[in-house]
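Reminder to self: tokens first, then the designed residues, so the page reads top to bottom the way the pipeline ran.
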């Protein structure tokens, strides 16, 4: 039985078992970590470190790291060949100080030494970017600005002298963006403006502008959300974006800066508290700052018109006591009066007796008698309308008005418009124009601007931010709330007539009328019918072209011989005239 259970045969391999090709990881030798750089004597290491630290400014922490060998290799003349090795050396050398916001002078010296190879063939972009990112931006802001200036000189010289396009590594581009975002616009605006001229960054320039509102918002939150320092941070960012909008010539960058400026302006608007509302008004707001409201613009216009109708009139001023007032001083060319803000400038006053607009008792001549006319009978009406006798006029409503401006027209020559007819009065616009007794005299009309000044604005377009539809709407609402139109127009840098057009368009068609009109494509005109002479001329051109092509083909055939026939023609059968068939193969 033992013989039956024994194996019939046994396999005895002649060679030992070898590992399969896919199992090298199982049978591989244990991983050996590469050893660090050879240790240098302390005297040699300090001989390399001390001169390098002497070139750095005396700020930050002067404590040296414990690993002097790695620090000496990073500051020496011979840097590591591999970028990854150099980046690991920077991380391991300053690991005891942390990974960010390090105030070490030794790390500043290492970052400056590594940045000397920016854009060169032997550059170390990963190690350079890591060294600069580990520094504290608040302590070494000036040094970062100097490094950004050096990089700007290198890129500018390349763009001017080299014909090939400059290619930078991704860590080098990130280094430029990090240095840009570490700058303060109040102190380093020129360096930041120079970065926007780097063509090598391409569309990433718009990206660093889009991140400005987020960085400003984060800085304000770190400062507690309020305070003069937070307001100063927002204002410096607004000034920088204004400079980009007015001075940069690349349209995508200008559009991005204008959009980001509106976002930062919203932050400033939230920082400034609203002034208390005037007494007796439910929707009163500060005229210098109108916050966005969630009601339609048409409803706002209706409320403004209703407020103008129900406004309390100003009491009339007392008439002057003296019939002949004293002449005005020579320096005063005009006389201030309670004139609405929408009235044209006053005419110069002429010394001498002036007429008064105040009510005076009527002096009746002695030869004219006045007798009261009473109705013959008194009637009682059943309706709400007053009952009038024949020949009697209805009483006019009493309207309380302020003192109207006094103009001396008797001594002035008649205007030229009187001969051709006066201009009809404008329709009701719904604007609030309250009298201002202490207002300063209106200035004379400004001269027509020339040069780069357009019909829209009196400020050159290169020196003002763009006027968006939101700005137009806020300006119109300011005028409707009673603010003088001249002040609003001067704030925007536009003419008062242009502001009048905005207000009229707003009242007539709403806020949608303030947007620029869209250019419509002109419809294609139908082709004119062809005349007989034109058809003959076109036919002659076609025939001439055909003759020219035919002559060219004939000349080509005559000059070039015909190609020989590759195969002979088939032999025809004499009886039938058809080609004979091949005999079939038998077998």
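Designed residues (587 positions):
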């Amino acid at each position: 039985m033992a013989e039956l259970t024994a194996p019939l045969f046994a396999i005895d391999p002649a060679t030992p078992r070898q590992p399969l090709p896919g199992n090298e990881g199982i049978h591989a030798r244990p991983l050996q970590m590469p050893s660090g750089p050879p240790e240098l004597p302390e005297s040699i290491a300090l001989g390399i470190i001390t001169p390098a630290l002497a070139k750095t400014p005396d700020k930050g922490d002067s404590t040296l790291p414990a690993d002097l060998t790695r620090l000496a290799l990073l500051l020496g003349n011979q840097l590591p060949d591999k970028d990854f090795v150099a980046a690991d050396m920077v991380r391991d050398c300053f690991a005891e100080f942390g990974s960010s916001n390090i105030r070490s002078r030794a790390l500043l010296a290492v970052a400056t030494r590594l940045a000397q190879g920016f854009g060169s063939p032997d550059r170390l972009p990963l190690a350079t970017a890591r060294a600069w990112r580990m520094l504290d931006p608040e302590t070494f802001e000036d040094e970062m600005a100097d490094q950004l200036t050096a990089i700007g000189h290198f890129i500018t010289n390349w763009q001017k002298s080299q014909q090939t396009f400059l290619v930078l590594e991704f860590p080098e581009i990130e280094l430029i963006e990090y240095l840009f975002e570490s700058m303060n616009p109040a102190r380093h605006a020129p360096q930041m403006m120079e970065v926007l001229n780097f063509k090598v960054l391409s569309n990433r320039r718009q990206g660093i502008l889009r991140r400005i509102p987020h960085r400003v918002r984060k800085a304000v939150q770190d400062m507690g959300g309020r305070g003069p320092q937070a307001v100063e941070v927002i204002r410096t960012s607004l000034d920088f974006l204004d400079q980009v909008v007015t001075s940069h010539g690349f349209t995508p960058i200008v559009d991005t800066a204008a959009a980001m400026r509106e976002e930062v302006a919203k932050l400033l608007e939230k920082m400034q508290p609203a002034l208390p509302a005037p007494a007796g008004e439910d929707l009163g707001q500060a005229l210098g700052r109108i916050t966005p409201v969630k009601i339609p613009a048409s409803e706002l216009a209706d409320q403004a018109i209703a407020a103008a109708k129900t406004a309390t009139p100003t009491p009339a001023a007392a008439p002057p006591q003296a019939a002949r007032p004293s002449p005005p001083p020579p320096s005063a060319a005009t006389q201030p009066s309670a004139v609405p803000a929408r009235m044209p400038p006053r005419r110069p006053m002429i010394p001498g007796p002036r007429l008064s607009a105040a009510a005076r008792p009527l002096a009746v001549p002695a030869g004219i008698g006045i007798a009261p006319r009473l109705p013959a009978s008194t009637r009682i009406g059943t309706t709400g309308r007053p009952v009038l006798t024949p020949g009697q006029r209805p009483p006019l409503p009493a309207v309380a008005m302020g003192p109207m401006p006094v103009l001396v027209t008797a001594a002035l020559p008649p205007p030229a418009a009187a001969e051709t007819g006066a201009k009809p009065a404008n329709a009701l616009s719904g604007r609030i124009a309250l009298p201002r007794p202490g207002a300063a005299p209106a200035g004379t009309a400004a001269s027509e601007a020339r040069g780069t000044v357009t019909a829209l604005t009196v400020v050159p377009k290169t020196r003002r931010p763009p006027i968006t539809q939101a700005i137009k709407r806020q300006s119109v609402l300011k005028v409707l709330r009673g603010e003088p139109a001249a002040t609003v127009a001067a704030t925007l840098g536009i003419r008062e007539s242009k502001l009048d057009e905005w207000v009229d368009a707003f009242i007539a068609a709403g806020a949608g009328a303030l947007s620029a009109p869209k250019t419509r494509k002109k419809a294609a005109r139908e082709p004119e019918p062809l005349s007989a002479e034109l058809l003959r001329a076109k036919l002659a051109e076609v025939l001439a072209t055909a003759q020219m092509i035919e002559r060219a083909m004939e000349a080509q055939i005559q000059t070039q011989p015909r190609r020989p026939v590759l195969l002979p023609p088939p032999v025809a059968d004499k009886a039938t005239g058809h080609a004979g068939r091949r005999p079939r193969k038998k077998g």
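The CA atoms of residues 112 and 147 lie 8 Å apart.
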